[in-house]
Design goal:
By secondary structure, the chain is α+β, with helices and mostly antiparallel strands. The protein has a domain at about 135-240: Chitinase A, domain 3. Helices cover about 35% and strands about 15% of the residues. The protein contains 5 helices and 7 strands. It has helices at about 40-60, 65-80, 85-125, 175-180, 190-200; strands at about 135, 140-145, 160-165, 170-175, 185, 205-210, 230-240. Strands 1, 2, 3, 4, 5, 6 and 7 form a 7-stranded antiparallel beta sheet that branches. Strand 3 (about 160-165) and strand 4 (about 170-175) form a beta hairpin. The longest helix has about 40 residues, at about 85-125. It is elongated, with a radius of gyration of 25 Å. The model is unreliable at about 5-25 (pLDDT under 50).
């Protein structure tokens, strides 16, 4: 579940490249053709596998790497040759790159955040006029799909829900339905839009929420959620759970 309050920080370990498969495993699609000679021996295949995995990880972390110089330095280091740069020069070069890369990423995030904020304001203004939409004092928008007859939860209570979260373009970023497992959490431990919205619901209800960025993940974003994203959810309140005995 990705709804817990969190702060998204740009990773400082920009230069870390590991010899494990990257999260998005290569399925062969969208790759340039490769007419190179296939490694045959065990040693060749092992070496190629390690190199390829590091290359996959490297492009995620260092998209502008000077490959030829990198290979040259790798050969020097592996061959135990004297470095052409002192340790101090290498450390300074790495730190410069990290600072430059971090500044670039921050600028890109700020630009994306401004664009998302403008999109969210426009959407919410238009959506507020749609049939069945109600707007709270905080700016949360919701629509009652079905209204149950059970109790309404309080902020300190534990609830069980099914939900689907999507961006304004309809792309789903999280869903308890796809996992076949309802989410259970204390209501005040999630984003403010949910804490407020679920307290409006009776058990057995299904609502649609349209959550402004400031009631979701704000300027920082979180995980797959870009900064200043207005989000939409379909939430089914299944039950109010009894607290577990300690």
């Amino acid at each position: 579940m990705r709804l817990l309050k969190s702060t998204c920080l740009i990773a400082s370990s920009i230069l870390m490249v590991t010899s494990v498969a990257v999260a998005n495993a290569d399925d062969g699609s969208g790759l340039a053709p490769n007419k190179g000679k296939k490694p045959v021996t065990d040693a060749q295949q092992f070496a190629y596998s390690i190199g390829y995995l590091n290359g996959q990880g490297g492009i995620e972390q260092i998209p502008d790497l000077d490959i030829e110089t990198f290979i040259r330095a790798y050969r020097d280091g592996y061959g135990r040759k004297q470095s052409l740069l002192s340790e101090e020069e290498r450390t300074a070069a790495v730190n410069r790159y990290k600072q430059q890369r971090l500044a670039l990423l921050e600028a890109e995030m700020e630009k994306l955040g401004r664009a998302n904020a403008a999109i969210g304001v426009e959407f919410l203004a238009r959506n507020a006029e749609a049939d069945g939409i109600k707007v709270t004092a905080s700016g949360l928008q919701y629509r009652e799909v079905t209204v149950g007859k059970g109790a309404k939860p309080k902020a300190k209570e534990i609830v069980k829900v099914n939900y689907e979260g999507s961006f304004l373009d309809g792309q789903v970023f999280d869903s308890s339905y796809s996992r076949n497992e309802p989410a259970v959490f204390q209501l005040d431990s999630v984003i403010p839009g949910w804490t407020e919205g679920l307290q409006l619901m009776n058990v057995g209800s299904t609502y649609e929420f349209f959550v402004p960025a400031e009631l979701a993940y704000g300027e920082a974003g979180a995980g797959p959620i870009p900064p200043n994203s207005t989000l939409q959810f379909r939430v089914e309140l299944l039950s109010i759970e009894k607290p577990t005995k300690k």
